[in-house]
Amino acid sequence: VIENNEAEDAGGGIYCGGTDVERIVIDGCVFTWNSGTGAEGGGIYTKNIQFLAVTSSVFAMNTAANGAAMTIAGGSADIFNCLFRNNAPGFISCIKMTSGSCTTTLENCTFEGNKMTALQQVSGDIIAENCIFWRNGSNALGTVTMTNCLVEGDGGGTGCFSGDPLFVAGHYLAINSPCIDRGGSILASDV
């Protein structure tokens, strides 16, 4: 658990930057009540790393001017089976990507109750597959490719749909949730 941390600039929970860093792997962590008070990345801020992998983690109640949960400034990222809930950016987004020509892929993630935009693409590509976007300020800013996602309101791409995800006991899906059996099976996992 990484909680109640504050940075004057970026990376309240974790700051990692530099050309020496090839790969960062974060698995099964909880980032809560962290703050990047001056700029970005309340939970995590990465800069000029080659690859970030985040799996089975929770980002809740983090704050920053931008990228309240996470800012990826350079490098690619795979974010899998994560929950982003009630993060509060002062300006725009829950996750911000400024990674040049790199790609951030989000698979089987849930974005719920984030105060502003869930995903912000400034540069690079953001791909969201089998994700839930529910009760956020808005879902995406910039070019975000969504496939097989529940997207509240209008929006989304191939295979996307809208409706109440019917959460029970936190963020589990009720047996009659419209999300069940709607995602692409290639991304299915036992985690």
Mean pLDDT: 88
| Main sheet properties | 10 strands, parallel
Q: DSSP strand (E) fraction?
A: over 45%
Low-confidence stretches: 187-191
Number of strands: 23
**H/E element order:** EEEEEEEEEEEEEEEEEEEEEEE
Estimated radius of gyration: 15 Å
The chain-level structural class is mainly beta
SS element count, helices: 0
Roughly how many Å apart are the termini?
Answer: 19 Å
- Large-scale geometry: globular
Indicate the percent of residues in helices: under 10%
Write up what this structure looks like.
Strand 22 and strand 23 form a beta hairpin. This protein has strands at 2-3, 6-7, 14-17, 23-27, 30-32, 35-40, 44-47, 51-55, 58-60, 63-66, 70-73, 76-80, 83-85, 88-89, 93-107, 110-112, 117-129, 132-134, 138-141, 144-147, 150-151, 167-168, 172-173. By secondary structure, it is mostly beta strands. It is built from no helices and 23 strands.
